[in-house]
């Protein structure tokens, strides 16, 4: 069983809060309850036990931390050796009693893997377009160099942990909904599962018996041209170190900042360009935007079929090959390292209407004569004069009490999930 599967059993994310875990457990336990729901279904019974065991671990902060860090091994105190399937473990976790021969502490402890550190890293769209090498310094935990992670002075021997009597694990009683459902084994918090502690006077001077120290470490982050937003750059083995543990990874998650001029969707870019009424009617040729690498992009509205085109707000053109580099691990690249292929650049035009003051500066009669004429009346037998005020289209339908907002939201949710 993979690390993380206790969360899957309950159907929650690994970031779930205790409240979410409790709610998920209640829902699942109701579904699989062997007495009330599934009296003759041994599978449902087993499932019910698994769910309860998963809940016991995840609802307990200490047990959950051990599980997150060490997986099921953290709960079985380094058992997990040959002959112990996850089902066995659950049985021991859940059934109550019969701990004999399980784990037994000490011998054959498997090398654990440290947890990964996930660090969000904010980047600009320019950086994702052009690529960037970021040098940074992080503080990380390393195995103490003075005592090589023993925590003791040279020549001293650690003694058996008093809390777990050298077993590395302790048992705790657990109850679900007030009923005692058995025992759980968690790694001993006093010796962190090692079964050994060091006398105060024997402790290493450098790490004070902690076995690890903090150290500044330089890291280099390669942001490649075209990398997607939310991309995970994994630096293998750069996570915190613990004795007898394979360090986890440091994972940088790219978070793209919003850009003033461009929106990104995959390899495509979108820019909004505002043009004047005169430009919309009569055409224009000018540098309309600055690309992410600083190049100006000239746009000649007459450089298309017929040469005449009146632009309306919402009109769109596409410039092929001026989008983001198409980033793939094995994409063909230029000497600079940037992928050869690029997506497209869409331009969405918006026509700026002149403000009212402009009318005072022109001959309105002459202008009216030049512009296309107004429209005639619609035919109607009764005509009322409109009394109106400025408004906002967002208010359309707002005054209608017949809408039940909550119900409406729920329907929407369901539809989204089903798509
Ligand atoms: Zn030390
Ligand atoms: Zn202990």
UniProtKB/TrEMBL annotation:
Compositionally skewed regions (Acidic residues) per UniProt: 398-413
Disordered: region residues: 395-419
Keywords attached to this Swiss-Prot or TrEMBL record, sorted alphabetically, are: Metal-binding, Repeat, Zinc, Zinc-finger
**Where's the J domain?**
5-71
Q: Which PROSITE patterns match?
A: DNAJ_1, DNAJ_2, ZF_CR
Cite the CDD domains for this sequence.
DnaJ, DnaJ_C, DnaJ_zf
Q: Its domain of life?
A: Eukaryota
Q: Which GO terms describe its biological process?
A: protein folding; response to heat
GO MF, any single term: unfolded protein binding
Q: Provide the protein name.
A: DnaJ-domain-containing protein
**What is the source species?**
Serendipita vermifera MAFF 305830
